[in-house]
Design goal:
Blueprint (H helix, E strand, L loop, with lengths): L1 H17 L2 E3 L10 E3 L10 E2 L1 H5 L9 E4 L5 E5 L4 E3 L10 E5 L5 E7 L2 E4 L20 H5 L6 E3 L8 E3 L1 H4 L5 H5 L12 E2 L3 H13 L14 H4 L34 E2 L5 E2 L4 E9 L4 E8 L6 E7 L9 E2 L1
Parallel strand pairs: 1-2, 3-4
Antiparallel strand pairs: 4-5, 5-6, 6-7, 7-8, 8-9, 10-11, 12-18, 13-14, 15-16, 16-17
């Protein structure tokens, strides 16, 4: 026991004196505070789930862990968010996660100069704590002029759908006409993408070789952006999203066919349709949106989508 304490004291004294520690070597490199040398073993850092990671109190900038669930991999805290050192997607190496006001965590991936969340919005609260109403009744839904959300088919096991008023922060009659009174929907540092930002993503993926046939002359990127599960329609159309799901989602965007809620309050096309809101207005009653269909090979734009329609939502970093 005395020898153990003597050895420990010697190691601590050496570390204190030289500000260096060598493991497996008696001559640590002069540039390193810690030099580990081995040809048979590796360095094992703490392993934990995303929830356990997010529960770390006041993480230091540069703190690193290995996340075992979700988008698994090495994460470090950059002073604001936990960031994945290297995405499993070939789209980009800048990735990580961001939390909303309700504590939901969204993984994100960088595509060119844009960082996009790759999971659908789930919040029920604006960033200032104001509640976004859940509206289940069809008649009430079709008469809305303020923000609301619902689960597809009013089933809590399915995805959340938002009308245009919700993503624009329109929470009462006054904020419908006065932009200054509107709430923030997206997490701090993020926003609901404009139509132009959606097109920027589309062009980047086309030019980066994500068309299903490898060409770069047209939009054929739907398979690369669509999820590998959830599509229930059957088709043999070449390049269609629902034809051979194993070939989907090479970009990591993971667009899931939640379906939509129409302006009349009814629910449609689950398993064959993934629609996403943009912040861009077309006219007093309509806005731009983009969607994936199981029968199509392209990301489709629609200019005059009813502001009352319920669609999925993604975020882009400011």
């Amino acid at each position: 026991m005395k020898q153990i304490f003597t050895l420990l004291a010697a190691v601590l004294l050496t570390a204190s004196t030289y500000a260096q520690v060598g493991v497996g070597t008696t001559t640590p490199d002069n540039s390193a505070a810690l030099d580990i040398t081995s040809t048979t073993k590796g360095l094992l850092i703490p392993r934990m789930t995303a929830d356990q990671r997010d529960a770390i109190s006041s993480p230091a900038t540069g703190l690193m862990i290995y996340q075992t669930d979700g988008t698994a991999g090495f994460y470090f805290y950059d002073g604001t968010v936990w960031t994945n050192l290297l995405s499993s997607s070939s789209a980009g190496v800048d990735s990580g996660s961001v939390n909303d006001i309700d504590g939901n965590s969204y993984d994100f991936i960088t595509y060119g100069n844009q960082a996009w969340t790759i999971e659908n919005a789930e919040m029920e609260t604006y960033t200032d704590g104001t509640s976004i109403p859940q509206v289940t009744d069809a008649t009430e839904w079709e008469n809305l002029t303020t923000g609301a959300w619902s689960y597809f088919d009013n089933d809590s096991t399915k995805g959340k759908l938002y009308n245009w008023y919700a993503v624009m922060g329109i929470h009462d009659a006054a904020s419908l006409t006065d932009v200054a009174l509107r709430k923030e929907f997206a997490p701090e540092g993020w926003h609901v993408p404009s139509y132009v930002e959606w097109i920027t993503l589309e062009v980047y993926l086309i030019n980066s070789g994500y068309n299903y046939d490898g060409t770069s002359s047209q939009d054929k990127i739907a398979k690369a952006m669509a999820s590998t599960t959830g599509w229930t329609v059957n088709t043999t159309i070449e390049g269609a999203v629902a034809n051979d799901l194993s070939l989907n989602n090479s970009s990591g965007f993971n667009a899931f066919p939640v379906g939509t809620r129409g302006g009349n309050g009814s629910f449609y096309v689950e398993g064959n349709f993934g629609g996403f809101r943009s912040s861009t207005e077309s006219n007093d009653n309509s806005s731009w949106m983009l969607y994936f269909s199981g029968y199509d090979s392209s990301l489709v734009s629609q200019e005059f989508a009813d502001k009352l329609d319920g669609y999925s939502v993604r975020f882009v970093r400011d």
